[in-house]
Description:
Layout: E1 5-7, H1 12-20, E2 24-26, H2 32-37, E3 45-48, E4 58-60, E5 64-68, H3 73-78, H4 80-85, H5 87-94, H6 99-104, H7 107-113, H8 120-126, E6 130-133, E7 137-139, H9 140-143, E8 144-146, E9 149-150, E10 158-164, E11 168-175, E12 182-191, E13 194-200, E14 207-208, H10 210-218, H11 222-226, H12 243-262
Parallel strand pairs: 1-3, 2-3
Antiparallel strand pairs: 4-5, 5-10, 6-7, 6-10, 8-9, 11-12, 12-13, 13-14
Amino acid sequence: MYAFTYETPASVAEAASLAAAGGKPIAGGQSLLPSMRLRLANPERIVDLNGIAELAGIRREGQALRIGAMTHHMDVAASAEVQSAIPALAYLAAHIGDRQVRARGTLGGSVANNDPAACYPSAVLGLGATVITNRREIAADDFFLGMYATALEEGELITAIRFPIPQRAAYLKFKQPASRFSLVGVFAAQTAGGVRVAVTGAAGCVFRHAGLEAALNQRFTPESAAAVKIDASELNADIHASAEYRAQLISVLTQRAVAQMLG
């Protein structure tokens, strides 16, 4: 690693000020630290958010769950509130990486990083969640802009994410066995505004699949999902899977998610 200055702010305001001055926020460090070790990232100042107590925690707000940005994956997975209100979200958190990653990784860090194969962005988009920052609230549909790109501005920090409680939801992923990231992950939800289907791991950024949503809004069955042709032309292809294989996974995982939701 290169030399850097290490800051430990005690409040969101202090952390935001340091970030606006060029500091690089660090949450669980599961993405930033490996990049630094490989010398792919060279921040001159690191702003550690772990000392800000107000950024962690889970609470219900009416028909939604508000989860603090610094809440660890393992805490989301173990939360009785999450397991009761949005079991698919608890399941997702319980299957991120390995035990060590779940103990250190955070909701806000994952969403802010927006790795193309990360699990949490699919839940945020699939549930139509709201990303709350120190400056504003951002709808999920407006938040994810591209590979590792989000609507966050310089010095803007995620403080919490508000997840509407769906009628029912399911998350399934086909894992890359070494990294445990998603070759493809599908988060499907029946919400007050209709069916939402969010896909991760298949392209450069998490996305909603309009064709699957339209078909499932007409008839919510695995057969409806199976009838939708998945276009592979803009999907990822790499040493792990071809674009066509990922297209097939999107279809199969969506069918299985619907079947799971129907019981």
